Amino acid sequence: MSESEVAAAAKCAQAFKSIDTDGSGSVSVTELRTAMEQRGVGVTEEQLQQMIQIADTDGNGELSFEEFLRVVSSK
């Protein structure tokens, strides 16, 4: 892994931790909604559910760090 990849992964980890407010190791719809609202991004409940569903590869209704990282690094 290059230095820039390590730095990007560290930034993603920091972002994930700031969204995962309960420290559970996963991001729930509620946590995602709060993060979006804090950043001034208006989304509907349906849009939030779709975001989670698209990224949630294990189907548990929440995003693990690995799932979050896949989404963020694909952008």
State the name of the first-level CATH class: Mainly Alpha
User: Helices and strands: which structural class?
Assistant: mainly alpha
CATH fold-type name:
Recoverin, domain 1
Give the CATH H-level superfamily: EF-hand
The biggest beta sheet, please? 2 strands, antiparallel
* Number of strand segments: 2
What is the terminal separation in angstroms? 18 Å
Based on CA inertia axes, which overall geometry fits?
globular
Question: What do the pLDDT scores average to?
Answer: 92
Looking across the biggest beta sheet, what order are the strands in? 1-2
Q: Show unreliable segments.
A: none
Organism: Batillaria attramentaria
Keywords: Calcium, Repeat
Protein name: EF-hand domain-containing protein
InterPro entries: Centrin_CML-like, EF-hand-dom_pair, EF_Hand_1_Ca_BS, EF_hand_dom
Task: Provide structural commentary.
The chain is mainly α and 75 residues long. It has a single domain (3-73), classed as Recoverin, domain 1, CATH 1.10.238. Helices cover 63% and strands 5% of the residues. Strands 1-2 form a two-stranded antiparallel ribbon. α1 (3-19) crosses α4. It is globular. The mean pLDDT is 92.
